[in-house]
Amino acid sequence: MPMIAQANKVANKVDLKAKLFRGFSDSSRLSILNALRVGPLTVNDIVEATGLNQSNVSNHLGCLRCCDLVIRSQRGRYVYYQLADARVAKFLDLADELLADVAKGVYECTHYDLPKEAKNGKCNNH
User: Fold this and answer.
1) Which of the ends of the chain has fewer CB neighbours closer than 10 A, N or C?
2) For the chain, where are the E strands, in sequence order?
């Protein structure tokens, strides 16, 4: 394969990975994914577990379903949502492990969209 074609393939993979991470980058979507770690839940269950409103949960579930991170199933008159792949839960577990070691740096980094009190952090030079 020519070098330019290889570079384009790598760039496309990086772009796709960045798009995947955007699915995890919203705090509401992340709250929903965390709630679903315990197993299938209805929208009402997710609302109760996350404290988000029903409309917000429904909108984010649509996004997560579109990205194949969450699936839904009908059981009688109830619709249940669950993680589409066990690796999503493993990914969240790994993120928790990593965050335990890098939380201070992530919190202080001014290049991420974090609460305003974190804006005076240390990442100004990169």
Assistant:
1) C
2) 70-75, 78-83
